Protein backbone atom coordinates (compact mmCIF):
# COMPACT_ATOMS: atom_id res chain seq x y z
CA UNK A 1 0.00 0.00 0.00
CA UNK A 2 1.35 3.45 -0.88
CA UNK A 3 2.32 5.66 2.06
CA UNK A 4 -0.11 8.48 2.57
CA UNK A 5 0.93 12.00 3.48
CA UNK A 6 0.28 13.02 7.11
CA UNK A 7 -3.27 14.35 7.33
CA UNK A 8 -2.77 16.82 10.13
CA UNK A 9 0.61 18.45 9.82
CA UNK A 10 -0.68 22.01 9.47
CA UNK A 11 0.76 23.50 12.65
CA UNK A 12 3.05 26.45 11.98
CA UNK A 13 5.17 28.63 14.27
CA UNK A 14 3.29 31.61 15.69
CA UNK A 15 6.36 33.79 15.17
CA UNK A 16 8.97 33.74 12.44
CA UNK A 17 12.41 33.39 13.99
CA UNK A 18 13.67 36.21 11.75
CA UNK A 19 11.11 38.63 13.28
CA UNK A 20 12.22 37.75 16.80
CA UNK A 21 15.88 38.02 15.84
CA UNK A 22 15.23 41.44 14.27
CA UNK A 23 14.31 42.73 17.76
CA UNK A 24 17.70 41.68 19.09
CA UNK A 25 19.76 43.62 16.53
CA UNK A 26 21.40 46.94 17.51
CA UNK A 27 18.76 49.66 17.74
CA UNK A 28 19.87 51.25 14.45
CA UNK A 29 18.80 48.16 12.52
CA UNK A 30 16.32 46.47 14.89
CA UNK A 31 12.56 46.22 14.43
CA UNK A 32 9.70 46.45 16.95
CA UNK A 33 8.01 43.40 18.46
CA UNK A 34 5.68 41.48 16.12
CA UNK A 35 2.04 42.38 16.76
CA UNK A 36 1.13 38.85 17.79
CA UNK A 37 3.19 39.26 20.97
CA UNK A 38 0.52 41.67 22.17
CA UNK A 39 -2.40 39.44 21.18
CA UNK A 40 -1.82 35.73 21.61
CA UNK A 41 -3.14 34.03 24.77
CA UNK A 42 -0.26 31.54 24.45
CA UNK A 43 2.23 34.39 24.78
CA UNK A 44 0.37 35.75 27.79
CA UNK A 45 0.48 32.32 29.46
CA UNK A 46 4.20 32.08 28.73
CA UNK A 47 4.76 35.53 30.22
CA UNK A 48 3.05 34.46 33.42
CA UNK A 49 5.29 31.41 33.70
CA UNK A 50 8.59 32.92 32.64
CA UNK A 51 8.32 36.53 33.83
CA UNK A 52 5.60 37.25 36.39
CA UNK A 53 5.78 33.96 38.33
CA UNK A 54 9.54 34.17 38.77
CA UNK A 55 10.18 37.91 39.08
CA UNK A 56 9.63 40.51 41.79
CA UNK A 57 6.31 42.35 41.65
CA UNK A 58 5.55 45.53 43.59
CA UNK A 59 2.26 45.10 45.41
CA UNK A 60 2.13 48.17 47.66
CA UNK A 61 3.94 50.23 50.26
CA UNK A 62 5.23 49.61 53.74
CA UNK A 63 3.03 52.58 54.70
CA UNK A 64 0.02 50.39 53.81
CA UNK A 65 0.97 47.99 56.61
CA UNK A 66 1.65 50.34 59.46
CA UNK A 67 -0.32 48.60 62.21
CA UNK A 68 -0.39 44.98 63.34
CA UNK A 69 -2.95 43.04 61.31
CA UNK A 70 -2.90 45.49 58.37
CA UNK A 71 -3.06 43.52 55.14
CA UNK A 72 -3.17 43.81 51.37
CA UNK A 73 -4.51 41.13 49.08
CA UNK A 74 -3.83 41.10 45.38
CA UNK A 75 -2.94 38.87 42.46
CA UNK A 76 0.49 38.17 41.05
CA UNK A 77 0.70 36.20 37.81
CA UNK A 78 -3.00 35.46 38.36
CA UNK A 79 -2.34 33.88 41.76
CA UNK A 80 -3.88 35.34 44.94
CA UNK A 81 -1.34 36.76 47.38
CA UNK A 82 -1.80 38.15 50.90
CA UNK A 83 0.68 40.44 52.67
CA UNK A 84 0.15 41.16 56.35
CA UNK A 85 1.92 42.69 59.32
CA UNK A 86 1.85 40.23 62.20
CA UNK A 87 1.24 40.91 65.88
CA UNK A 88 5.03 40.50 66.22
CA UNK A 89 5.50 43.45 63.79
CA UNK A 90 6.95 41.20 61.06
CA UNK A 91 5.58 41.65 57.56
CA UNK A 92 4.92 38.37 55.76
CA UNK A 93 3.48 37.31 52.42
CA UNK A 94 1.44 34.18 51.77
CA UNK A 95 -0.56 32.54 49.05
CA UNK A 96 -4.00 33.90 49.85
CA UNK A 97 -5.41 30.40 49.80
CA UNK A 98 -6.96 28.29 52.55
CA UNK A 99 -5.11 25.02 53.11
CA UNK A 100 -8.32 23.00 53.34
CA UNK A 101 -10.01 22.93 49.95
CA UNK A 102 -8.05 25.85 48.59
CA UNK A 103 -10.63 28.63 48.69
CA UNK A 104 -9.33 32.16 48.35
CA UNK A 105 -9.01 33.41 51.92
CA UNK A 106 -9.01 37.20 52.41
CA UNK A 107 -11.67 38.72 50.16
CA UNK A 108 -11.01 42.41 50.78
CA UNK A 109 -8.21 44.23 48.90
CA UNK A 110 -6.98 45.76 52.16
CA UNK A 111 -7.93 46.09 55.79
CA UNK A 112 -6.91 45.24 59.33
CA UNK A 113 -7.56 41.77 60.75
CA UNK A 114 -6.68 39.87 63.90
CA UNK A 115 -7.29 36.56 62.15
CA UNK A 116 -8.30 35.36 58.69
CA UNK A 117 -11.27 33.00 58.72
CA UNK A 118 -12.09 31.08 55.58
CA UNK A 119 -15.69 31.66 54.51
CA UNK A 120 -16.09 28.02 53.45
CA UNK A 121 -15.53 25.74 56.51
CA UNK A 122 -14.15 28.32 58.94
CA UNK A 123 -10.51 27.29 59.10
CA UNK A 124 -8.90 30.28 60.79
CA UNK A 125 -5.35 31.59 60.46
CA UNK A 126 -3.28 34.03 62.50
CA UNK A 127 -1.55 37.06 61.02
CA UNK A 128 1.65 34.97 61.10
CA UNK A 129 0.01 32.38 58.84
CA UNK A 130 -0.42 29.67 61.53
CA UNK A 131 -3.60 27.63 61.39
CA UNK A 132 -5.38 28.48 64.66
CA UNK A 133 -8.67 26.64 64.24
CA UNK A 134 -10.02 23.92 61.96
CA UNK A 135 -13.51 22.91 63.12
CA UNK A 136 -13.95 19.17 63.87
CA UNK A 137 -10.67 18.23 62.26
CA UNK A 138 -9.68 16.50 65.51
CA UNK A 139 -12.01 13.74 64.26
CA UNK A 140 -9.30 12.89 61.78
CA UNK A 141 -6.47 11.07 63.58
CA UNK A 142 -3.56 12.14 61.38
CA UNK A 143 -4.43 15.83 61.27
CA UNK A 144 -1.92 18.27 62.71
CA UNK A 145 -2.75 21.99 62.44
CA UNK A 146 0.97 22.80 62.45
CA UNK A 147 1.25 21.22 58.99
CA UNK A 148 -1.44 23.42 57.48
CA UNK A 149 -0.37 27.02 57.95
CA UNK A 150 -0.61 29.44 55.02
CA UNK A 151 1.98 28.81 52.32
CA UNK A 152 4.63 31.54 52.39
CA UNK A 153 5.59 33.80 49.51
CA UNK A 154 8.86 35.73 49.43
CA UNK A 155 8.57 39.36 50.46
CA UNK A 156 11.16 42.12 50.32
CA UNK A 157 11.21 45.90 50.27
CA UNK A 158 12.99 48.59 48.29
CA UNK A 159 12.51 52.29 48.89
CA UNK A 160 9.44 51.62 51.03
CA UNK A 161 7.82 49.55 48.26
CA UNK A 162 6.70 45.97 48.99
CA UNK A 163 7.79 43.40 46.44
CA UNK A 164 6.79 39.72 46.34
CA UNK A 165 8.16 36.79 44.37
CA UNK A 166 6.31 33.49 43.85
CA UNK A 167 9.50 31.62 42.99
CA UNK A 168 11.45 30.32 45.98
CA UNK A 169 14.52 29.84 43.78
CA UNK A 170 14.59 33.35 42.27
CA UNK A 171 17.47 35.75 42.99
CA UNK A 172 16.96 38.18 45.87
CA UNK A 173 15.35 41.53 45.10
CA UNK A 174 18.74 43.20 45.63
CA UNK A 175 20.35 40.85 43.10
CA UNK A 176 17.46 41.30 40.68
CA UNK A 177 17.98 45.08 40.93
CA UNK A 178 21.74 44.87 40.52
CA UNK A 179 23.05 48.02 38.85
CA UNK A 180 19.76 49.92 39.30
CA UNK A 181 20.58 53.62 39.73
CA UNK A 182 21.13 54.65 43.34
CA UNK A 183 18.12 56.72 44.46
CA UNK A 184 19.12 56.89 48.13
CA UNK A 185 19.14 60.70 48.01
CA UNK A 186 15.39 60.73 47.29
CA UNK A 187 14.80 58.85 50.58
CA UNK A 188 11.91 56.99 48.97
CA UNK A 189 11.05 55.16 52.22
CA UNK A 190 10.06 58.40 53.89
CA UNK A 191 7.79 59.67 51.09
CA UNK A 192 4.04 59.53 51.60
CA UNK A 193 1.43 58.63 49.05
CA UNK A 194 -0.96 61.54 48.58
CA UNK A 195 -3.09 60.24 45.74
CA UNK A 196 -3.66 57.16 43.62
CA UNK A 197 -5.70 56.43 40.52
CA UNK A 198 -6.43 53.06 38.94
CA UNK A 199 -6.81 52.99 35.18
CA UNK A 200 -8.12 50.10 33.10
CA UNK A 201 -6.52 50.21 29.68
CA UNK A 202 -7.43 48.08 26.66
CA UNK A 203 -3.83 47.32 25.78
CA UNK A 204 -1.19 44.74 26.49
CA UNK A 205 1.12 45.48 29.44
CA UNK A 206 4.17 45.68 27.16
CA UNK A 207 2.56 48.40 25.06
CA UNK A 208 2.17 50.49 28.23
CA UNK A 209 5.75 49.87 29.33
CA UNK A 210 7.13 50.70 25.89
CA UNK A 211 5.12 53.89 25.73
CA UNK A 212 6.56 55.00 29.09
CA UNK A 213 10.11 54.76 27.82
CA UNK A 214 10.13 57.15 24.88
CA UNK A 215 9.24 60.78 24.24
CA UNK A 216 9.31 60.60 20.44
CA UNK A 217 5.51 61.00 20.70
CA UNK A 218 5.54 63.86 23.20
CA UNK A 219 5.54 66.92 20.93
CA UNK A 220 2.44 65.73 19.08
CA UNK A 221 0.47 64.12 21.90
CA UNK A 222 1.56 65.87 25.12
CA UNK A 223 1.78 69.63 24.41
CA UNK A 224 1.42 70.27 28.16
CA UNK A 225 4.36 67.98 28.95
CA UNK A 226 6.46 69.16 26.03
CA UNK A 227 6.07 72.77 27.21
CA UNK A 228 8.00 71.88 30.38
CA UNK A 229 10.41 69.15 29.19
CA UNK A 230 11.30 69.14 25.49
CA UNK A 231 10.97 65.73 23.88
CA UNK A 232 14.57 65.85 22.70
CA UNK A 233 15.98 66.82 26.09
CA UNK A 234 16.68 63.29 27.23
CA UNK A 235 20.13 62.86 28.76
CA UNK A 236 22.12 59.68 28.82
CA UNK A 237 20.00 56.54 29.15
CA UNK A 238 20.55 53.92 31.84
CA UNK A 239 20.22 50.40 30.50
CA UNK A 240 20.91 47.38 32.68
CA UNK A 241 19.93 43.73 32.79
CA UNK A 242 16.65 44.47 34.58
CA UNK A 243 15.92 48.13 33.89
CA UNK A 244 16.18 51.10 31.61
CA UNK A 245 15.59 54.79 32.00
CA UNK A 246 16.95 58.26 31.66
CA UNK A 247 16.44 61.93 32.52
CA UNK A 248 14.52 64.69 30.71
CA UNK A 249 15.68 68.25 31.33
CA UNK A 250 13.28 70.90 32.65
CA UNK A 251 13.22 73.85 30.26
CA UNK A 252 14.65 77.19 31.42
CA UNK A 253 12.15 78.89 33.70
CA UNK A 254 10.36 75.68 34.79
CA UNK A 255 10.96 73.98 38.12
CA UNK A 256 8.78 70.87 38.08
CA UNK A 257 6.31 68.90 35.98
CA UNK A 258 2.83 70.22 36.72
CA UNK A 259 0.06 72.20 35.08
CA UNK A 260 1.98 75.42 35.84
CA UNK A 261 5.48 74.00 35.52
CA UNK A 262 6.31 75.75 38.81
CA UNK A 263 7.10 74.05 42.08
CA UNK A 264 4.72 74.95 44.89
CA UNK A 265 6.70 73.00 47.47
CA UNK A 266 10.31 72.44 48.55
CA UNK A 267 12.55 70.08 46.64
CA UNK A 268 13.11 66.65 48.09
CA UNK A 269 15.88 67.14 50.61
CA UNK A 270 19.08 65.48 49.51
CA UNK A 271 18.69 65.71 45.74
CA UNK A 272 21.63 67.12 43.79
CA UNK A 273 22.00 69.99 41.32
CA UNK A 274 21.36 67.76 38.32
CA UNK A 275 18.16 66.38 39.93
CA UNK A 276 16.86 69.93 40.42
CA UNK A 277 16.85 70.52 36.67
CA UNK A 278 15.40 67.27 35.44
CA UNK A 279 12.84 64.53 35.77
CA UNK A 280 14.14 60.97 35.75
CA UNK A 281 12.14 58.05 34.44
CA UNK A 282 13.05 54.47 35.28
CA UNK A 283 11.50 51.18 34.28
CA UNK A 284 12.33 48.22 36.52
CA UNK A 285 11.32 45.13 34.57
CA UNK A 286 8.84 43.76 34.17
CA UNK A 287 6.36 46.50 35.01
CA UNK A 288 7.40 48.94 37.76
CA UNK A 289 7.75 52.50 36.47
CA UNK A 290 9.07 55.33 38.62
CA UNK A 291 9.40 59.01 37.75
CA UNK A 292 11.39 61.41 39.94
CA UNK A 293 10.68 65.15 39.81
CA UNK A 294 12.56 67.60 42.05
CA UNK A 295 9.67 67.77 44.56
CA UNK A 296 7.65 64.56 44.13
CA UNK A 297 7.75 60.99 42.84
CA UNK A 298 5.25 59.28 40.58
CA UNK A 299 4.90 55.51 40.28
CA UNK A 300 2.99 53.49 37.70
CA UNK A 301 2.50 49.79 38.44
CA UNK A 302 1.28 47.95 35.37
CA UNK A 303 -0.71 44.78 36.07
CA UNK A 304 -1.43 42.47 33.14
CA UNK A 305 -5.06 41.31 33.10
CA UNK A 306 -4.97 39.37 29.84
CA UNK A 307 -3.22 39.79 26.50
CA UNK A 308 -5.34 42.80 25.55
CA UNK A 309 -6.05 44.42 28.92
CA UNK A 310 -4.02 45.94 31.72
CA UNK A 311 -4.64 47.78 34.95
CA UNK A 312 -2.36 50.66 35.90
CA UNK A 313 -2.04 51.88 39.46
CA UNK A 314 -0.66 55.40 39.42
CA UNK A 315 0.52 56.86 42.72
CA UNK A 316 1.83 60.29 43.72
CA UNK A 317 4.36 60.62 46.58
CA UNK A 318 5.63 63.70 48.43
CA UNK A 319 7.98 64.14 51.40
CA UNK A 320 6.20 63.84 54.74
CA UNK A 321 7.26 67.38 55.63
CA UNK A 322 5.60 68.71 52.47
CA UNK A 323 2.39 66.79 53.11
CA UNK A 324 2.29 68.26 56.63
CA UNK A 325 2.34 71.86 55.34
CA UNK A 326 -0.87 73.82 55.92
CA UNK A 327 -3.15 73.75 52.87
CA UNK A 328 -0.96 71.15 51.10
CA UNK A 329 -2.48 70.68 47.66
CA UNK A 330 -1.00 68.38 45.02
CA UNK A 331 -3.72 69.05 42.45
CA UNK A 332 -1.34 70.72 39.96
CA UNK A 333 0.73 67.55 39.63
CA UNK A 334 -2.24 65.21 39.91
CA UNK A 335 -4.14 66.97 37.12
CA UNK A 336 -1.03 67.19 35.00
CA UNK A 337 -0.34 63.46 35.20
CA UNK A 338 -3.94 62.38 34.94
CA UNK A 339 -4.13 64.26 31.63
CA UNK A 340 -0.79 62.86 30.45
CA UNK A 341 -1.80 59.34 31.50
CA UNK A 342 -5.07 59.51 29.61
CA UNK A 343 -3.29 60.83 26.51
CA UNK A 344 -0.92 57.87 26.78
CA UNK A 345 -3.63 55.25 27.26
CA UNK A 346 -5.25 56.48 24.04
CA UNK A 347 -1.97 55.84 22.21
CA UNK A 348 -1.60 52.41 23.79
CA UNK A 349 -5.09 51.40 22.71
CA UNK A 350 -4.28 52.58 19.16
CA UNK A 351 -1.22 50.30 19.14
CA UNK A 352 -3.23 47.40 20.54
CA UNK A 353 -5.82 47.79 17.77
CA UNK A 354 -3.11 48.12 15.13
CA UNK A 355 -1.42 44.93 16.32
CA UNK A 356 -4.41 43.02 14.96
CA UNK A 357 -3.19 43.69 11.42
CA UNK A 358 -0.09 41.55 12.11
CA UNK A 359 1.89 43.55 9.56
CA UNK A 360 5.68 43.36 9.66
CA UNK A 361 6.94 45.50 12.57
CA UNK A 362 8.53 48.88 11.88
CA UNK A 363 11.93 50.30 12.86
CA UNK A 364 12.79 52.11 16.11
CA UNK A 365 13.77 55.77 16.10
CA UNK A 366 17.06 56.36 18.00
CA UNK A 367 14.98 58.22 20.66
CA UNK A 368 13.36 54.84 21.35
CA UNK A 369 16.58 53.37 22.67
CA UNK A 370 14.96 52.35 25.97
CA UNK A 371 11.93 50.79 24.26
CA UNK A 372 14.34 48.66 22.32
CA UNK A 373 16.22 47.71 25.50
CA UNK A 374 12.96 46.48 27.07
CA UNK A 375 11.83 44.63 23.93
CA UNK A 376 15.21 42.97 23.69
CA UNK A 377 15.03 41.91 27.34
CA UNK A 378 11.53 40.56 26.72
CA UNK A 379 12.50 38.43 23.71
CA UNK A 380 15.53 37.10 25.58
CA UNK A 381 13.41 36.22 28.64
CA UNK A 382 11.03 34.07 26.62
CA UNK A 383 13.82 32.83 24.35
CA UNK A 384 13.30 29.56 22.53
CA UNK A 385 9.91 29.01 24.17
CA UNK A 386 8.59 31.89 22.13
CA UNK A 387 9.99 30.57 18.86
CA UNK A 388 8.53 27.14 19.68
CA UNK A 389 4.92 28.36 19.97
CA UNK A 390 2.75 26.93 17.22
CA UNK A 391 -0.69 27.53 15.88
S1 LIG B 1 -11.81 25.72 51.96
FE1 LIG B 1 -11.26 26.98 53.60
S2 LIG B 1 -12.16 26.04 55.31
FE2 LIG B 1 -12.67 24.72 53.68
FE1 LIG C 1 3.41 59.71 26.70
Strands of the biggest beta sheet: in what spatial order? 1-10-9-4-3-2-5
Described by strand count, sense and barrel closure, the largest sheet is:
7 strands, antiparallel
Q: What is the CA-CA span between the terminal residues?
A: 32 Å
Which series of helices and strands comes N to C?
A: HHEEEEEEEEEEHEHHHEEHEEEEHHH
General description of the model:
With 391 residues, the chain is an alpha+beta fold. It has two domains: 57-169, Rieske Iron-sulfur Protein (3-layer Sandwich); 179-385, Naphthalene 1,2-dioxygenase Alpha Subunit, Chain A, domain 1 (Alpha-Beta Complex). The chain is 24% helix and 26% strand. The protein is built from ten helices and 17 strands. The protein has helices spanning 17-24, 41-52, 173-176, 205-212, 218-221, 223-228, 273-276, 320-323, 331-355, 369-387, and strands spanning 57-61, 70-76, 79-85, 91-95, 110-112, 115-117, 124-126, 131-133, 152-158, 161-165, 191-201, 238-239, 243-249, 278-284, 288-292, 297-306, 309-319. The strands form three sheets. The chain has a seven-stranded antiparallel beta sheet with strand order 1-10-9-4-3-2-5, with no helix packed on it. A seven-stranded antiparallel beta sheet has the order 11-17-16-15-14-13-12. The chain starts with 16 loop residues before the first helix and ends with a helix. The model has no long low-confidence stretch (mean pLDDT 95). The structure holds FE2/S2 (inorganic) cluster (FES) and fe (ii) ion (FE2).
Amino acid sequence: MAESAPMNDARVPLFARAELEAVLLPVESAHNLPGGLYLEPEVFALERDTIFSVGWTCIGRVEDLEEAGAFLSTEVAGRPVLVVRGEDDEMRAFHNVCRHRGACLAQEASGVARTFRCNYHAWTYGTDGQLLAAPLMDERADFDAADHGLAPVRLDTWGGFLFVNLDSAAPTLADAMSGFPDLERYDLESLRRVHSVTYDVDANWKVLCENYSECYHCALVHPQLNRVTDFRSGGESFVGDSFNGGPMALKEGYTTLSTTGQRRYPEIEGINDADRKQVQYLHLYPSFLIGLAPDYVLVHRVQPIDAGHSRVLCEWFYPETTVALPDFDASETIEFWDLTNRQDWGLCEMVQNGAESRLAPGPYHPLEFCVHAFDRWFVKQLGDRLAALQR
